[in-house]
Amino acid sequence: MIVRRWVLRCSTGVFAIAGLAACTNLPASGPYPVSVQAGSTTTLGSNSAATQVKYALVDLTADVLRFVGGSAPNSLYRTFAGGRGPAPEILVGIGDRLVVAIFEAASGGLFIPSDAGSRPGNFITLPPQAVDASGFISVPYAGQIAANRRSIPAIQRDIEQRLAARAIEPQAIVTLVEQRATEVTVVGEVNGANKFAITPNGDRILDAISKAGGLRHPGYDSFVTLTRGNRSATVHFDNLMRNPQENLFVIPGDTIYVYREPRSFIAFGASGSNGHFNFEAEKVSLAEGVAKAGGLLDNRADPRQVLMYRIEDRKVLEKAGVDLSRFDPDASAIPTIFRTNMRDPSGFFLAQSFPLRNKDVLYVSNSDSVELIKFLTVLDAVSGTVANVASDALVTRGAVRELRD
Fold first, then answer.
1. C-alpha span between 186 and 191 (Å, rounded)
2. Structural domain that includes position 278
């Protein structure tokens, strides 16, 4: 009777144990929120919705893909608003070395003596001189000539005007023989980091990188940062190659920094493999990302809930028709979850055309039935354990009787 009462008590406790198991003992990849909360020494937090990160949930459709299917919003052109039109004019700067030649129409003038006669080339050439720290050069009988931040033709006209009353129809030719103030610096993952003088016909970013020996690593792993004054912007090298608008003219003082950062994404959830995956290619689509992560697990995944997390440009979402009225109007970037339904055959075509970006997070949701299976598995294990204990008790009682007899 004692054993039977014990078995009955154990049997009636199955559902209580199973309920507890449903809360805390089901298989999981980490602690449950209730365990984290209960085990904390102190807590700073709130359940208020106001403290949560606001995000937009966008179902991936053909219409949405037209606006969000492009590359990341980083842009040199939008940052510096330049690149079109003719090359920028090269101005003389402090430290540049100039040579000044002065011509006169006849001998007997200021620079050409009378006994020189009529000869071709009635001119003198002054020794090379650098633009001083104050921005001036010195020309005999003309005095100090402002040269800093001026063009060569402007300097020539200034010299001619200063000498007009003393020389015979003077003409000045100014030659820039050494550029020091009109240089651009290229550093980072290039084969020959250096400073280069900008040519009069203008150099673009790719020209400067070429002068530095080109990239040291594949273009799909390389980024280019342009620093101009107190502003900087970064663009992926492949985007720089594909989009001529991004290949801006460089100006004196620019710094171009080339660095390697293999683009990657992270995969979680019911995919064949969870972890960190490098692109290792110029472009990787969402479909290719799912494949890299081992595909969807047939016994776990919900193909209707393939989610991709990223920080999306606000303007892109507005063009796609997403209502952002509940977000901060000053926020230029919006946390966004793009949802793809791969149970729909057309979802594969959309996923094939949707490019992943660096640092995207891919999450494949579990099917609802998976949680039920977890619960039933634990329930079966608990029921089987109770039944085995009851059976062992009966066997033990029989053995004790045999010993007594």
1. 10
2. 51-70+265-369
Q: What is the pLDDT of residues 315-368, one digit of tens each?
A: 999 999 999 998 999 999 999 999 999 999 999 999 999 999 989 999 999 887
First-last CA distance in the chain:
19
- pLDDT tens sequence across 248-261: 999 888 999 999 99
Residue 38 lies in a domain: no
What's the CATH code of the domain at 117?
A: 3.30.1950.10
- Is there a single domain that holds both residue 289 and residue 318? yes
Its pTM stands at 0.65
Evaluate if residue 18 carries a pLDDT over 50: no
Cβ-contact 69, 283 below 8 angstroms: no
- By CB atoms closer than 10 A (0-12, 13-18, 19+), residue 248 is buried
Buried b (16+ CB within 10 A) or exposed e, 189-215: bbeebeebbbeeeebbbbbbbebbeeb
